[in-house]
Every structure is written in structure tokens, then in C-alpha cells.
Amino acid sequence: LHNAKPESQLLQNSKESELDTAEDLRKKLCQAKREKLDLTIKHNQELSNYESQIVKLRSEIEKGEAVRQSLEYELAIARKDARLKMYAAEQELSDAKNKLVELQVLNGKLHQKVAETEKMFHIAQQKWQEQHQRLASEKDDIRRTCKSEYELLLKERTKLENSKHVCKSWLEGLHLVNCNSELGYENAEVGMEEQNNTLQNMHKKMKDVEVEHNGCTELLRRQASELEYSTEREERLKKELEAATVRVKKLEENIEAERAAHLESKFNSEIIQLRIRDLEGALQVEKASQAEALSDLEMIKKEFKEVENAYEREKHNAQENLKKLNALERECFSTNKQMNEKIEEKKVVIKDLTQRLGNNEKAFRELQEQLSMAKKHQVFLTETYENNMRELELLLDSFAMSGQRTAGTCKDKDKAARGSVLETLRCTLTVYQNKLEDTSNEHWTKVTFYRVEFLPAFLFLASALQESQDNLADANKELNHLHTKCADRETLIGTLKMELQNVQQCWEREKARATESENEIQKLTRAYQKDMEEKLTFLHSLYQRLVAGCVLIKQPEGILDRFSWSELCAVLQENVDALILDLNRANEKVSHLEYVCKNKSDTMKELQQSQEDAFSKMAEQMKAQESCWQKQKKYLEQQYSGLLGEVHARAQEYQETAEKSKEKICVLEKRQDILALENVSVKNTLTQVQKEHSSLLAACALLAGALYPLYGRSCAMSSQRDLLQDQVNIYELVNQEIRTLVHALSDAEENNQDESKLKKRKFKGLIHVFRRGVIAVLAANRLKVLAQSSTSLFSWVNGFKEGIGILVCIGDSKGKRNLPSREEEQIHYVEALSWFTSSNLLAAIISSVTELQDVVNKTDPKPWLSGHLLVSAARNSFSKLMDKLNVIMETVPLDGSRSVTYLEKDSLVERLARGLHRINTQALEAGLCDRLPIMKSIASLQKQIFEFTQRLHTTEVERRSLRLKLAEFKWNFSEMKKEADKAQSLQEQLNMFKKSKLITHERFESACEELNNALRREHQAQVLLSEQAQQLQELNNKLELHSSEEADKNQVLSETVKRLSEAKMELRRKDQSLRQLNRLLTQLEQDKRRLKESIRDAESALCVAAKDKELIISHMKSVEATFHKVRDQTLLSWTAATRNDFTLQLPKLHLETFAVEGMKGRPEVVAFQAMIKSFMDVYQIASSRIDMLMREVASHQLQTTALKSKLQTACLHETESLQL
């Protein structure tokens, strides 16, 4: 027992130690399991966190991709905007360059004008200097001649005084010698004769000196009048220079306006730069393209800077030109004769203005045509755009799912971006593609599962999958093609918008030009009114001057054809002033002649007294000189006999020459008669040719007015045909794409059709090929027949409008025969020649246009009645001409093939249509997809999309069931967690019992068993937890996929709804903008009509003014012609008279008044007639005064001749008495 106790104690100790070790090991196991659980929990938490993070990152990546796509789309839009703005900036640059070129051309013209004015100024200055030098030299010569003649007169006076003294001394010597020597008497007679000769020479020289003195005074007066005229010209030149400065200022204002426009374009380019910089911050991928854009913009800046520098240069040049013009103004004070040159410059300016008006009218017409074409193009584009958008919306509505439609109803108010409909289509197609890929993957898994049992079915399905993948690839390609087409359409829409904006800008410019033209017309009317007032005041002042003044013979040279109204008035005023000056000169001459006559009468009396004294003294000397006179008489008789012989010989020669000249005159008269007959015939032919020319011109004008609108309509119809053809092509492409989509989305069973159907399809295809060949052969035969029966000469095609032409045919042609090509060409050439030179056509044209010619040649005082008559006559003549041309052109033989009606029942067209209908019905019955109509293909598409929606509904039901299973798994997992918590609590109780050491062996074993059971349960729970965790992961993955798909679908649907709403808003905005544009266009057309009416009124007023001016000018020319006749008559009378006989006879002057009835009551005409009447009165008074003076002069001359005869008789008596 003592040994058993220690052994039992040892055993108990060993058991206790083993129990302690077991408890320690269990504790360690529990701790390890706890640590393992903690690690697994942490691991699961980290996994869930990481998975959530991965999901977030994926969502962020998808958001980033969506943002990237949106940014790419915005970037593409920005690129398009930038390109459009670059294009606009380039266009503005090109416009600016063109304007620069025009300004340079204007500057060059101004430089040329300045150079010409400088040259003319230098020439005028040289002429003035030369004239000044000539006048100075002439003055010096006149002074020298006067001095020399005065010295000669003094010398002759001294000689006469000496001779008088000698005679007196000689007479005293004779008285001393008592007159005995005959030699002394003869010497005295010779001295008397010498004295008489010297006295006569002195009188002649005095008269010549007086005449020269009068000529010098007249030259000085003329020079004074020329100086006054030069001062007036200087004032006019100053006014013209002021007008030129005003024009230069206007040019500077235009340059500043263009510079402001360039600054605006520069501001727009800077805005584009800022937008590009903002896009650079958002999109780092597009840095290279943005750098290129920045470089392009820098180049544009450089070009703008160059343009600004060019503008500054032009401005500097303009300032220099202004300085030169100011210098020229200062220098022009010394110019005298530039009126003709200024008239030429004014003519050039008028030509330039007319050219500019013509250019403006051409530009206005071109802009009208461009506006009409832009309107048509815009209407067509809007219609095509609306149709495309409607078709796409219909397609989207038919393809859209229920969720998408509900989302679209909620978010209609959001603003949409461009191309939203196309993006919705793309998103729906991508969704369908993803669903197809998912279904294909599921199908592939099922096939792999049942591969062993259903191998042949698997192979069949694999082939079907490959075909479906190929079809999907084709569909993707077609989608990409559609995307490219949509992008091209968007670019086209943007370009069209820019074109519309450009057209609006051009229209605004034209409106501004029209307003400027109205202002210019108002200015012209004001200037015309001022001019008329100036004319009236001038004529009134001229009338007063003529009433107060007098008239002389002189009249200046008239250049009335080249002058304007103001210049004509100035010339007339100068002529009247010159006439008054000439009258004053004539009065002065008359007074001077009276004074000279009085002096001469006094001198004659003195001479008579001195001669009587001398005769009494010289009677003895005359006897001595008588012998000498007889000798001289014999000598003179001999000389006169010789001279008489010469005179007789010359008279015979003159008689012979006179007879010859008479014969020549007879020959010339005969030639004159022949030429007169030829002239009459030529005049008749010329009148006939003029009639034909006027009739042909009127016919050409009518035909041109009828042809060009027809040509415009044909152009518009061809453009509309092209647009309709484009629409038809687009419609066919859309139909073809719909058929391809139907074919791609159709079931696999339809792809595996029978061989019989394939054979039928081949057979039907061969039938279609045969039908095409038959139709081509028929068309070729018809074209051949038409070519044989055609009478066309050539066809004209416009270079700018390709494909639009006019066919020119020949009339009076007999059609083409079956002849070789050379003979046909010869016949064609002969027919063309006969048509171009046909007398029937000319007679028809002349006879049909006679009524119009009568109306045109008739001058009606009432223009409104003549306008109605002209329109009615033109209408009647055009109808006659068309009737006659119809008669002439109907002589062409028409082929019978042209008159066939193709709408008969048994016609070839009807037969072909029936056959095509029969073939198409057979193809539809056979089930051929290629010949299906578009409505059936759309219906099949709708069915397939409905099937897709049903599949999506089933997938959603499966997703909901999976969510319910996941909730059940989560509930089981929570229950397992509760059991694990109970096991942990039991383990803690067991540990407490062990510590208390009150546990029996049975309890210990039961506790061990419970612990073992708990461990097994824990193990099973862990296994179940791991399996549930795997299942949860799979379910989470599936849920994430479904959630991502749902999010994508929701995003796509929201985007599509937004884009659809935005597209609708844009369409509404476009409709509003189109309505506004139509209103603007109607307003602009109304403004245009008003402007045209105002321009017509102004033109009519200008035409009336021009006609009045022409009438007044013609009347003034007639007055000038009468003045010229009077001057010529006076010159002839002056030349007919001798130098000694100063008889001046003024002819009678008859001036006619205005014969036109419309001009009689006007104030300028009344003033002009009053001036003419006053001039006639002054002329009559002057002529009567001159006649009186000439009579007095003639009476004085008769008195002088009587005194001379008395002196001669006295001298003869004295000589006879001396001889006796």
C-alpha cells in the first residue's frame, strides 16, 4: 500500500503534467486557430476592400474613357471650329490681300496722276516762262522800233527844217537875181517835188505808226484778259485740288475701316488661341496637333503684322502724296493754261466712275445669283438633314428598349450635343454586339459541356458562330463607314453654316454699298440743284451786264464741245466780257479817229495856207522845172508802154488758164453729179442697213431676255436633279445597309438554305443580267436613231457650271441621210452656212419687229404712256417672232420614233415592267433576301430587335434570382457565425472547469468529446465558409458584371436621351433661324426693290437733266455758229477793203429761240433767251453807231479828196500861167 500510494501520486502527477501539457497544447491550438481565423478575416476584408477598390477603379477607368471620348469629340468639334475659323481667317486674309492689291493699284494710279500733274505743271510753267520771255522780247522790239522811228522822224523833221531854211535862202537869192536863170527855176521845182514826196512819206509813216501802236495796245489788252483768265483757272484748279484732297481723305477712311476689320479678325484669332490653350490643359495627348495649330496661328499673326506694316506704308505714302499735293497747290498759283488737260482728266474720272458703276452692278448681280444658289442649297441641306434625323430617330425608337424609352421621357429637358442620334445608334449597336458576344460565350460553354454527346451539332454551331462573327465584323465595318459619313456630313453642315454667314456678311456689305449709292445720288441731286441755281444767277448777272455794256466785232475761239455746263457758262461770260471790251475799244478807236481827223483838217488848212504862200513864191521855179518834167514824162511813157505789153501778155496767159479751169470745173461738176447719185444710193443702203441693224438688235435683245431666264431655270433644274440624285443614292445606300443588317441578324437556319433556292437565285440573277443587256441594246438603238434625226450644230457648256449646257440647232435642215461621214459633214456645213445667211429668217425678224421699231423711234412727251406702249409692242413683236420661228423651225423633218407614246398598253416599257414585276413576285415567294422590299426588311429588323429585348428580359429575371440566392447564402453564413460563437463560449467554460480542478473523469471525457465534436463542426464550418466564400466571390463577380452592364446601359440610355433632346432643340433652333433668315431675305428683297426704284428715278432725273443740257448746248452751238459767220463776214469785209479805205460794215445777226416745247417755260431757258435778246439789241446799237461813224469817215475822206483835187487844179493852173 505504501508503495502504491507514491506510485499513484506519481501517476497522478504524471497525469496532471500530461493534462497541463495537453491543455497548453490545446490553448496553443486554439490560439493558432484564432490567429488563423483573424488572418482569414483580415484576408477576406482586404480582399473585399481590394475588390471594391478594383470595382471603383474600373468604374473610374470607364468614366475616364467616357470623359476621354467626350473630350475627343469636343476636341474634334474644336478642330473643326478651328479649321473653319482658319478657313475664314484665310478668306479674310485673301480679301485683305485683294484689297491691298486694289489699294496699291489706286496708289499707283494716284502716283501716275501726281506725276502727270507735275509734268503738266512743269510744261505749263515752261510755256508761261516762254510766253513771258516772248512778251518781254516783243515789248523790247516794239520799244526799239518806236525809238528808231521816233529818231527817224526827228531826223526827217530836222531835214525838212533845213530844207525850209535852204529854200528860203534860195528864194531870197532868186529874188536878188530877179528870177532870170532857168536853172534856178528848175532847181526850185525839183525841191518842191521832193518836199511834197517827203511830206507824203511822213503822213504814211505816221499812219503806220498809229496802226502799230493800236496793235500793241490790243496785244496788251489781250494779254491782260489772258492773265485774268489764268487767275480764274488757278481758282478752278484750287477747287479741284480740294476735291482731290477730299477723295484722299475718303480713301484714308476706307483704309481705317479695313484696318478695323483686320483688327476684329485678329481678335477672333486670339480668341481661337485662348480656346486652343484651354483644350491643351484638358488634353495632353493632342499637344503635337496644338503645337502645329499654334505655329499656324503665329504664321497668321506674322502675316497680319505684315499686312499692318503694308497698311502703315500705304498710309505713309498717302501722307507723302498729301504733302506733294499741298506743294502742288502752292505751286499752282503761278500756272496759267491747263484747262484742256483738266477737261481730259475729268473725262477719265467720269470713265472710271462709269466703270466702277458697271463693276458694282456686276458684283451686285453675282451676289444675287450666289444668294439664290445658297438659299436653294441651304433648303436642300436642311431637308436632307431633317429627313436623315427623322429616319434615325424612327430607327432608334424601333430598336430602343423599355428602359431607354422611360429614361428618354424623364430627361427631355437636358441640352444635347451634336450628333447625339448617331452616338445613340452607335451605343445601341455596341450593346447589341456585347450581348451577342455574351450569348456566344454562353453558347460556347454549353457546347463544350455537351461536346461528347452532341459532336455533329457542336460542329454545326461552331460554323454558325464563325459566320455570325464574320457578319459582326462586316457590321462593324459598315458602322465605321457610317461614322465617317456622319462626320463628313457634320463638316458639310459646318461649312454650309460658314457659307451662310459669309453670304449674310456680303449681303450686309451690299446693303451698305446701296446706302452709300443712295447718299451719292442725293449728293448729286443737291449738286445739280446748286448748279442750276448758279446758272440762273449767272444768266441774270450776264443779262444785266449785257444791258449795261456795248459790243464790238471780236469774238473768242469757241471750244464748246469739250466744256461742261459751268465751263460753258464761264466761256460765255468771257465771250460777253470780250465783246464789251471790244465795243469799248471800238468807241475809243472812233474817238481817236475823230481826233486824228480834226488834227488832219487843221494841218491841211495850215498846209494850204503855206502852199499858197509857197506857190506865189515858187511860180518862177516851176517854169524852170517844166523842161525837166517833160523829159521825165517821156521816160515814164516808155516805161509804161513796156509795162502795158507785159500786162497784155499776162492777160492772154490768164485767159488761157481761165479757159482750162472752166473745162476742169465742167469735169468736176460731172463727177460731182455721179458722186451725188452714188451718195444717194449709199444713203439708201445705209438707212436700210440701220433699219436691219436696229430690228436685229431688238430681236436679239428679246431673244436674249427670253433665253437667259430659261438657261437659269435649266441650271436650277439640273442642280435640283443632282440633289435629288444624291438623295436617291443615299436612300439606296440606307436600304442596302438595312438589308445587310437584316441578313447579319437573321437566324442561322436562313444561312443554310437548300441548293434548289441557290439554283433559283442564280437563274433569277441570269434573268436580270439578260434584261439589262436587252435594255442597253434598246437604249443604244434609240440613241442612234436620235443622233441620225438630230439637227444640232453644237452645244455650249459654261465653265463654272459643269454639266449644264445649251444645244444650238439649225433650221431649214432636211435631216441626216444614210451617207458616209465626209458627205454628211459637208452637207451639215452647207446647211449651217445657209441657216446663218438665210434671207427668210432676216425677213421674218424684220417684219416681226417693225411695231417695236416704230415705238422706239417715236419720241413721246409722256414717258409713262410710251413705257406701256413699248412693253405692249415688245410683247406683240416677240409673239410674232416666235410664231415665225416656229414656222421656220417646223420645216425640219421629225422622225417617227420620237412621236411614239410609251404609255400604251402593248408598248415595250409596259412589257418590261410586267416581266420585272413577275420576277420580283417569284423571288419573294422563293424567299430570296436580296429582292425583299424595304418595308419587309424593316419589319424583320423590328422582329429581331424584339427578340433581343425578350432575351434581355430573361437575363434580368436570372439576375434577380441570383440576387435572392446570394441573400440566402448570406443568412446561412450569419447562422454559421453564431454557431462558431457558441463553440467559443463552450471552450471558455471548459477552461474554467479545468482551472477549478473539480472535473471528474467522465466529465473530462464528455468535455473532450464535445470539444472534438466542436472541432469537427468548426472544420466543417470552415469548409462550408470557404465554399460559401468562393460562391460569394463568383456571385459578386456576376453582380459586378451585371451592375457594370446596367450602369453602361443606363449611361448609354441617358446619353441617347440627352442627345435626342439636344437634337430636337437644335432642330427647333434651326427652324427658327431659317424662319428668321427667310424674314431677313424678304426684307432685303423689299429694300432691294426700293433701291432699284430710287435708282431708276434718279437715272430718269439724270437723263432728263442730260437731255436739257444737250438741248441748251446745241442751242449755244447754233449761237456760236452764227457768231462765227458774223466774224467771217466782218473779216472778209475787212480784207476786201484797202488800207486807206477804213470802211467797216457789220452784217445782220439773226438768232433763233428754242423750238422745243418742253424747254420753253423753264427759268434757265427764259434767262438765256433774255440774254440773247439783250445781246441782239446791243449788237444792233453798235452796228448802227459804227455805220454812222463810217459814214462820217467817208464824208471826211470825200472832203480830203475834194481838197486834193482843188490843189491839183490850182497847181495846174499855176503851171499853165507860168508857162504862158
Automatic annotation (TrEMBL):
Residues 40-106, 185-261, 294-370, 422-534, 976-1101 form a coiled coil. Keywords: Coiled coil. InterPro entries: CCDC171 (IPR038820). This is CC171 protein. It comes from Columbina picui (Picui ground-dove). The lineage of its organism: Eukaryota, Metazoa, Chordata, Craniata, Vertebrata.
